[in-house]
Amino acid sequence: MGKSMELRLSGTGGQGLILAGIIIADAAIRDGKNSVQSQSYGPEARGGASRAEVIISDEEIDYPRVAHPNVLLVMSQEAYDKFAADLDRGGVMIIDSTYVQERPGIDGAVYTLPISSTAREQVGREMVANVVALGAMVRITGVVSRRALADALLARIPRGTEELNLKALETGWQLAEKVLH
Amino acid sequence: MSQVIEMARLMQGNEAVAEGALAAGVRFFAGYPITPSTEIAEIMADRLPRLGGKFIQMEDEIAGLAAVIGASLAGLKALTATSGPGFSLMQENLGFAAMAEVPCVIVNVQRSGPSTGMPTSPAQGDVMQARWGTHGDHPVIVLSPSSVREAYDLTVRAVNLAEKYRVPVILLMDEVVGHLREKVVLPARGEVETVDRPSPKVPPGEYVPFRPEDNLVPPMANFGEGYRYHVTGLAHDEKGTPTNNPALAEQLLLRLHDKINMHLDDILLDDAKFLEDAEIVVLAYGSTARPARRAVKEARGRGIKAGLYRPLTLWPFPAKKVRELAEQAHSIIVPEMNLGQYRLEVERVVRDRARVSGVNRVHGELIEPEEITAAILEVV
């Protein structure tokens, strides 16, 4: 099996994590790779656990689910409690400190960032916390190119929200920049 | 607006079904939205009116398939999409379509059941229902895709087979393939082969609506074209007139089955990997074929002669091929997100020629490759 990157984006229904997963998978294709995106969610429109999974590979992808993510985004306490232990050895975990307060047993590369509060305070809408998270995640992990990420983002959001979303992406990028230096 | 899709793009399984339906010439959709099939209705509602087609949201799934049958009788290629609870409601009209030989396609994106079950979780629990859900011995064709591209291809194929043989065709998806997004390159519009129903070669006065041609399929006159005839779910003679004549009733039932059984070479479709020298065969379909393929690759990596057989046509059952596999392999493993529905059929055909076992999960999650690997190691 060739080198592949497996990502899990987890949190609460309504945080836009499935859309974030779609954008990453779309960006990977724009980078010339193979990708699959799958999801698991409850019947609720909002609330309830939600997760999106993405696999990026140069080869054909058989199994579309992720057991041990190389990249794990955690945007709720419930998601942390449920998924933190699944992180692959050597994997990267990005935690939204706005909603995850208790973090027992952290081991490995963990980045704790105030994603949702930054979306609310600096971008002006908490709704774009998913895009702030994308910016930070891609800056930290380099799973897709920034250009492909921006193109995929613009292709997948409602018309009229381009400026807001690009601002959110840049804000996330800078948020990661700060902790990397 | 029709658009030519030639570039690689990220597409969802349900989206691929809608694209495939439109490419195959479907111009009518009636149904009732239900998770996890809703995207198909959503896209058809958006696209069909722009192509001069019709989308109707009906009051329930019974009416959904009824409207599809009506549209098909009036000459349109017609499709509906649903999930388990809606598929149950469609069974009566499915039997009508089989009996009256009305071409139509029913997409069932399977979710956990029985009843409303777990609406957002995958299952493969409708395999037997797809074959035997409606009452009476009836012909049916059931196709099952494992990838987004295959969802597109098999939707086109479902429409073509329905038209060619005047039979309801079920595209049996599951939530994983329906909601999965992956990279696809779709064929250009002109490259998609489409099939139209056989039309009468005689003027209305000489038309005998249910008199078959040599291939046992009767030419079909569309309502509104000047041909008048009676369509009924009752046993009928060649003119479409209801009959209780035992000989005529049996003749009809046998022809309905023979028109499918004499064309198995055309209808049965499958795929294989590492099957040439396989001593252990994993027989899997739908999304379950994906962890199966990974497990077979891993087994090969360990030097185990394992292979994957993947029926794309679930029904009619590929009995001849499965019998051959049983002669070649000592074990056949059938992983399914149900309690062994297709395995029963495999066992029926294999008898004692090979050992048959299952990997069966009904917890609403896709089976993991490791579970299939463990089953392979058990029979090495």
List the helices and strands and how they pair.
The complex is a heterodimer of chains A (181) and B (380).
Chain A: E1 4-12, H1 17-30, E2 34-41, E3 49-57, E4 71-74, H2 77-83, E5 92-96, E6 109-113, H3 115-123, H4 129-141, H5 146-156, H6 162-180
Parallel strand pairs in A: 1-4, 4-5, 5-6
Antiparallel strand pairs in A: 1-3, 2-3
Chain B: E1 9-12, H1 13-24, E2 26-31, H2 38-47, E3 54-57, H3 61-73, E4 77-82, H4 84-100, E5 104-112, E6 118-122, H5 127-132, E7 141-143, H6 148-165, E8 168-174, H7 175-179, E9 181-184, H8 246-261, H9 264-267, E10 270-273, E11 280-283, H10 289-301, E12 306-311, E13 313-315, H11 319-328, E14 331-336, H12 341-350, E15 355-360, H13 369-379
Parallel strand pairs in B: 2-3, 2-4, 4-5, 5-8, 7-8, 11-12, 11-14, 14-15
Antiparallel strand pairs in B: 1-9, 5-6, 7-13, 10-12
Helix pairs in contact in B: 1-2, 1-6, 3-4, 10-13
Q: Between the first and last Cα atoms of chain A, what is the distance in angstroms?
A: 34 Å
Percent range for β-strand residues of chain B: 15-25%
Radius of gyration of chain B: 21 Å
β-strand number of chain B = 15
* Shape-level CATH architecture of the domain at 4-115 and 145-158 in chain A: 3-Layer(aba) Sandwich
Q: Structural class of the helices, strands and pairings of chain A?
A: alpha/beta
Terminus-to-terminus distance of chain B: 55 Å
Category from helices, strands and their pairing of chain B:
alpha/beta
What best-fitting shape of chain B do the alpha-carbon axes yield?
globular
Task: Write the CATH homologous superfamily of the largest domain in chain B.
Answer: Thiamin diphosphate (ThDP)-binding fold, Pyr/PP domains
The SSE string of chain A, one letter per element, is EHEEEHEEHHHH
Poorly predicted runs of chain B? 1-5
> In the CATH hierarchy, what is the superfamily of the domain at 4-115 and 145-158 in chain A?
Pyruvate-ferredoxin oxidoreductase, PFOR, domain III
Q: What value does the Rg of chain A take, in angstroms?
A: 15 Å
**Percentage of helical residues of chain A?**
40-55%
Please report the number of helical segments of chain B. Answer: 13
Quickly give the CATH architecture of the largest domain in chain B. Answer: 3-Layer(aba) Sandwich
Indicate the mean pLDDT of chain A. 93
CATH C-level of the largest domain in chain B:
Alpha Beta
Name the average pLDDT of chain B. Answer: 96
**What is the number of domains of chain B?**
2
Domain Pyruvate flavodoxin/ferredoxin oxidoreductase pyrimidine binding (chain B): 19-245
Keywords (chain B): Oxidoreductase
Pfam families (chain B): PFOR_II, POR_N
Protein name (chain B): 2-oxoglutarate ferredoxin oxidoreductase subunit alpha
